[in-house]
Design goal:
This protein is mainly α. About 65% of the residues lie in helices and about 0% in strands. The radius of gyration is 13 Å and the shape is flat. The two termini are about 25 Å apart.
């Protein structure tokens, strides 16, 4: 099972290139300013709403976990995620 933060970011930022779970925090910091105007409160409200869906619905959780698997390649830097490769 992946973390809620990974799943939330994978859903929101499919077009971002990421190679391992260690890059999740950096992506969050970059996107915080862009999407939420730097407001942690707004970002956490959005994340909390997603976490409620993720934790209360096994179907949402299963789909999100599969999505993270496609979003994060976990491979060498020359590889890109399947989402990026196929333009999803």
């Amino acid at each position: 099972m992946t973390g809620v933060l990974d799943a939330w970011l994978a859903e929101k930022y499919r077009s971002e290139r990421i190679f391992d779970h260690g890059e999740v925090y950096g992506l969050f910091k970059r996107r915080l300013a862009d999407e939420f105007g730097g407001s942690l409160e707004r970002a956490f409200e959005d994340l909390a709403a997603y976490a409620d869906r993720y934790l209360s619905n096994p179907d949402v959780r299963e789909e999100a976990d599969a999505s993270v698997g496609l979003w994060v390649t976990g491979g060498p830097d020359e590889l890109i995620s399947e989402y990026k490769m196929f333009g999803d």
